[in-house]
Design the sequence.
């Protein structure tokens, strides 16, 4: 999870900086719209993408995330024990805060969506227009949501709403800007902790205003349209989720209307973006695989390394002890007891080695015992390239001790079924 957050944050920050430096102040509004949406979606998906290499040992990126020796795991266990006492379980506190804030944002989203739907449902509809105009009794400036334009009923019927304002909102509707806003709001609910998401939402909304203004100016005089906007600066409309006039950004809109960018300059900047994005994508996807490979090379002298190569085992979060290699999809320590989910143990035993698999297993570091409710243990010969076991043992409710002289002693097993495999 931490790696995902880091990689997605690096990606979205880099893409935003490219936008800020190359695209933000030029009139490539349609391109900018899709670039901003691409930046968000790309950054949230790129951490899941890995480019395959010719490395013959598949390795998880999590291989570097955990202790790899008896000394380091003892230290880690002590640290985690102290943290659990001193910080009242910090991960749980952070998770609680995350869920609380996400819930508040979700409730806010749903409430504002409900307000708009209620307004549309309870108001008079002008059916001879496309998009439809909703006459609301609320005192509000014109704003749009999906295929509806909401205006104040009294002002509309008294013909006090300028046609250019209606045209502006029609542009929002016909270009489906509400879809962009709903998408970024849902993403913000999940990734609210990333400030770039909030910044990109504002940039998307501002670009929507540029697009709508540009559409209006195809038929409207620039000076008269600017005068209309200036007359509305001190009137407020705070309808959330809806496309509307954001008056804190009116100055930027007015400046953008008067800009004249050369087509060559705009084209060069758009073309420049493409290789930079490709470089970012390649660096993020290859860096993870490279890191895993480099970390595995650090363990090529360990006794268990040839075994995982032989069996093509993909290391996850692992611990390396004198006679025991263990790993799992989750790996935690409390009171010097290691808990492993989807556990896999490799245990050295004289001329043989054992591979023990269990859905959930525990390793007591003080007693040097391994226990689980259920497990399957396979025995292999060290000096054989054969990946087929010479014996398979199924165990239920077991505890066994791993001795330093490379032997194990099972001193509890509710049920033990062993099958010796004879090979011709």
Sequence:
């Amino acid at each position: 999870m931490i790696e995902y957050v880091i990689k997605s944050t690096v990606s979205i920050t880099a893409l935003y900086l490219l936008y800020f430096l190359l695209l933000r102040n030029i009139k490539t509004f349609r391109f900018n719209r899709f670039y901003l949406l691409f930046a968000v979606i790309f950054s949230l998906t790129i951490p899941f993408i890995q480019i395959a290499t010719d490395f013959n040992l598949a390795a998880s990126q999590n291989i570097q995330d955990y202790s790899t020796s008896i000394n380091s795991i003892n230290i880690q266990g002590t640290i985690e024990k102290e943290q659990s006492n001193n910080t009242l379980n910090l991960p749980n506190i952070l998770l609680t805060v995350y869920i609380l804030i996400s819930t508040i944002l979700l409730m806010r989203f749903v409430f504002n969506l409900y307000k708009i739907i209620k307004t549309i449902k309870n108001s008079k509809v002008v059916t001879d227009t496309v998009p439809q105009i909703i006459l609301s009794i609320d005192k509000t400036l014109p704003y749009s949501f999906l295929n509806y334009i909401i205006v104040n009923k009294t002002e509309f019927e008294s013909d006090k709403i300028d046609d250019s304002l209606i045209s502006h909102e029609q542009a929002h509707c016909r270009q489906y800007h509400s879809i962009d806003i709903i998408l970024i709001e849902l993403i913000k609910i999940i990734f609210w902790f990333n400030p770039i998401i909030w910044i990109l939402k504002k940039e998307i909304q501002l670009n929507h205003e540029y697009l709508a203004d540009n559409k209006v100016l195809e038929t409207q005089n620039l000076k008269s349209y600017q005068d209309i906007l200036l007359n509305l600066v001190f009137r407020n409309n705070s309808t959330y989720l809806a496309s509307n006039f954001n008056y804190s950004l009116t100055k930027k809109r007015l400046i953008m209307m008067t800009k004249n960018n050369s087509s060559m300059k705009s084209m060069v900047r758009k073309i420049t973006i493409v290789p930079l994005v490709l470089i970012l994508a390649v660096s993020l996807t290859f860096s993870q695989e490279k890191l895993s490979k480099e970390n595995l090379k650090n363990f090529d002298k360990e006794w268990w390394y040839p075994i995982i190569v032989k069996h093509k085992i993909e290391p996850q979060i692992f611990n390396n002890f004198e006679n025991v290699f263990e790993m799992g999809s989750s790996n935690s320590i409390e009171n010097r007891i290691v808990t492993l989910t989807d556990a896999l143990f490799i245990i050295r035993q004289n001329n043989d080695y054992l591979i023990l698999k269990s859905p959930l297993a525990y390793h007591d570091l003080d007693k040097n015992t391994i226990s689980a409710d259920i497990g399957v243990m396979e025995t292999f010969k060290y000096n054989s390239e054969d990946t087929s076991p010479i014996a398979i043992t199924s165990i239920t409710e077991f505890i066994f001790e791993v001795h330093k002289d490379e032997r194990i002693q099972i001193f509890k097993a509710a049920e033990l079924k062993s099958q010796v495999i004879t090979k011709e």
In short: The CA atoms of residues 87 and 93 lie 9 Å apart.
